[in-house]
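Holo prediction — adenosine-5'-diphosphate.
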Amino acid sequence: MKVLVLNSGSSSVKFQFYDTSLEAIKGGSEKQLAKGIVEKIGEKTSIRKIECNGKPPYKKEDPIADHTQAIRTIIDMLSDSEYGIIKDKTEIDAVGHRVVHGGETFTHSCLIDEKVYDKIKECIPLAPLHNPHNIKGYEISRDLLGKTPHVAVFDTAFHQTMAPSAFIYALPYDYYEKKRIRRYGFHGTSHRFVARRVGRLFNLAKDAFNVITAHLGNGASIAAVAKGKVVDTSMGFTPLEGLVMGTRCGDIDPAILMYLQENDGVNVAGLNKVLNKQSGLIGISGISNDMRELEKAAAENNARAKLAIDIFCYRIRKYIGAYAVAMGGVDFIVFTAGIGENSHIIRGEASKGLEAIGAKVDEAKNKSLNGKEGVFSTEDSKVKLCVIPTNEEILIAHDTVEAVSGLL
Ligand code: ADP
């Protein structure tokens, strides 16, 4: 089955194209046929890129007015006789869509029908910056592809197994009942992918181990997954809570917001900008939100770059300790995403002191793992420390095949 995976955002649409089947999913033999992006939609310098299996990459810069034109461009690129991979759009058997917020309604991926479509729209107030663009991607591809089935895969769904003790905030209960303010958690597809990969790598059933998964990219979150189910996760009502991120603050005392409003005259838009864009690694260091830049500056003894790295890693360690106890013990700790996969420095710092919960780092193994899958704990470590590159798109493709086959 040929599956198109679409990640439709505000100014870009990313895509991947897979040849997969239920058998291929089990055996890990699915094939990526193409990947690419249409970005800077609506600007004069929109960029379209595609790279198909065995063909030279293609890139062009010219205006792409809107999302409709962007998705049409993706289908045209896939069907191009020179650099494309299919004859025409009839070869697209199904489409999997990344949808950021599924609220409390969606606990797993599902085929999109009229009812599901309406329910996804009901989740817009929970993710006003994301869901409308995800929905647009569905609407346009549905109109372009006729009867092809479409599947929605939600960032929040995996976290729906949390107990009320983990997802309810200590606010007046009405806030949950009437306004649906609660912890939802995000990056669920990535946490699910790496947790599932642990089971496959170590030949364990998903209910046979506890794992803490640390997704450390520009956005960062950590999850406690006990016997295949999420017990807790660091992102909350929005992706602002929890770990320190590239430009987001993560956990802070909410009274700081009142203090700033009362004493500095900052309004809601100002607070939004500070907390989402000017905090985190860039806010502390004053240098960059890019961990590579900070590691370089720290090596040159820049005190604020060192401080940013220290705070980033300390917060991760603190969560790992808490989650180990929340799950009643941990067997694996996995690092993933841009920083988790590529930075032995951050993995090493974030793992300091984890001997207390039975996790011992082998520094040589840690250094050898950048960008690669593997274990970097010592032979006698009770808890295995791992690097597992994430692949949200492939899990969206798998879910799409399973949903279309009636298995979800
Ligand atoms: P996004 O959340 O945008 O998907 P990514 O998962 O791509 O983010 O991660 C981006 C982060 O990964 C950036 O902070 C970047 O500096 C960091 N990163 C990528 N490669 C390395 C590396 N070799 N060493 C340290 N950090 C890295």
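READOUT: The radius of gyration is 22 Å.
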